[in-house]
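Task card 7
Instruction: Convert sequence to structure tokens.
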Amino acid sequence: MAEPKNPYNNIEKELTLVGNPILDPDPVDVEVEDQPEIVEGMEITELEDGSVELGSQEVEPEDTSFMANLADQLDDDEIAGISAYVLEKVEEDKNARSEWLNTYSEGLNLLGLNYENRTEPFDGATGVVHPMLNEAVTQFQSQAYKELLPAKGPVRTQVMGKTTPDLEKQAERVQDYMNYTIMHTMKEYEAEFDQMLYYLGLGGSAFKKVYPDPQLGRQVSKFIEAKDMLVPFNATDLDSADRVTQIITMTENEFRKLQVSKFYRDIEVKSGRADRDDADDAKESITGVYAQGDYEEIQLFECHCYLDLEKFPDIGGDGEETGVKLPYVVTVSAENGEVLSVYRNYDPNDTFKNKKQYFVHYMFTPGLGFYGNGLIHLLGNLSRAATANLRQLIDSGTLANMPSGFKARGLRIKNDDEPLRPGEWRDVDVVGDQLKNSFFNLPYQEPSGTLFQLLGFVVQAAQKFVGTTDMGTGNINNQEMPVGTTIALLERGSRIISAVHKRLYNSMKQEFKLIADLISQEGGKYPYMEEGDKAQDFDKRIDIVPIANPNIFSMAQRISLAQEQLKLATSQPEMHNLYEAYRRVYNSLGVDNVEQLLPPPPQPQPMNAVIENGKVMSVLGGQMQLKAFPEQDHDAHISTHLSYMGSISVRSNPAVINILQQHIFEHISLKASMQIQMEAQQQQMDPAMAQARLSQIEAELTKQYFEVEAQVLGGQQSDPLVDLKAKELQIKEQEAMNQARTDAEQLELNKQKLQANTLIQKDRINTTEDIANMRAQNARFIASQRNQG
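Output:
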């Protein structure tokens, strides 16, 4: 097979031989023009006569935009310096947190997800782990997930200050699109948030990264484990940290996609087994899933740091270099230290060049350093104590139920190396008394009751600490318990979890703000039938906050508070809206379609004046209310009500007159408003003048009304309320006179009774004296008879 022609050989031969006196065997006097330089990548075309045609070199234009990858524009020495800096700081930050990582790794073994085969203190000893820690983490995760991420979406909007109908519509559009984006467009959000809550409760810190993904063409919010976020040892928060490094692990295909999309430099990066830390080993041991075969990954260090690049220095107002380091995002390969990208990390219009934040720190409870404390740290020692107590109880029961000891050497038992089965009898070469004396059982005791009580105390202390019991409220369903006592019990039993819920609320608010900023930069129309532009709607006028209540973190707490509100409302129904109180109870219970179960109270509807007169007594009983509407004939309504007020039955009832007067005043106000609108349109009044004119019209209409009312009511000048008070005074005066008359008659009757009693007493005294005299005479007569005898 003939070797193909190489156009580079032809052109080189032609350019080196022609006109060269040394190499050309037949030199001729020819005028050699300046030959073009052959550069790699130049297009070369061979013509029919053997000559060649040189084309222009195809050079890809350099991206010099603000958001370009600066690694393509930096020289090799500066690239090497950046790589050395990032790798050095990554190693430094890893060493600084080694003890924290060790504590976290050991704490993973306390979850009790795997069983440990133990040979100490004896072979077959139990390896059970008390599920205290896993129970607390799971309860927190499930409770927070339900409260912070409801099915309808986690976002609500609010407008601070004065609102307008346009602002309210804008806020509604923003809320709908944010919930649509998070729950439908960002398909990874729900699963990532659910997993983040578990790691958050476990380790105390978890992170979300909000950024535009070039592969997906949209914003994403990724969960990052705390072990994959490196910060300096003296950092207190993400905003003030001198650098923040994310450890990224991806497959070769994912990495190649980013290179093809020009996000990373197209250079060779070797893949391999990513560096494994103690936490990774502990998770693999717990789950029982290990990497097999030729599974290889690419590990990158994405460092958000400050650099002073020689080619891109900070320029002051005087045009001179300031030497101030600017924020950049640098990505370096962990395998060979290749710098894959260097991006500016500040807005082009930001005169202060403040770094842009992509990370959100979710914290369970604050610790002594940057990372928070999780349930591993809060319950670690109690979980170890509970596990030790549980193992001792099980092992003591095992030893007590399967006794062991010593036997005499001369004792012969058939098959003595096999344990006895239930119902089995074996031959022994010894008599009964000698058999009993040939065994000595070790003094194993039954499981200790004191140890069991200690286990209960440890578990109860852990549950009380993190609020995993029924919020410490005791008999919270006691209807006689005062409202203040109930609220105090709720607060006391949920202090820690309530504070955690507020921290999650604040972190979610920061995350939503980052998502909203990316949506505003994206711009364009809504993907569904909706008016408005996203870039204009997502401005600073609308506040985006979580829909969760930062003060209520569970359904039990919400139901308890709603019940206490209902209890207060029913105790004073005239001061409360009972419908709203009952509606809140149903909403706290999660009842759908509450309107079908609890229909809202009927709203006032326009009625003619005659029907309104007939409904006055219902209004007086609180069953309904009279309401005027702008489209009604106000003069006709006022005239009809005045005629009814002139009737004898109504004039004697001041309460009815008062209700009708209030309703008439409402008609007067609406009539004045309609009149000023017409005048303002005709005369083009400003708001201040229109308001002043409105007050004048209301005063004139009110004066006219009182004049007509005086005529209708027969010139009655007195106030009906005054007449009512006068009648009340007359009635009270008549009652006083009647009471005085009754008292006088009672006094006369008592006087007569006293006189009658006095006469009766005198008669009794006289009668007693007569009897005494008769007895004395009889005694003297008897005595005289005895003397004579």
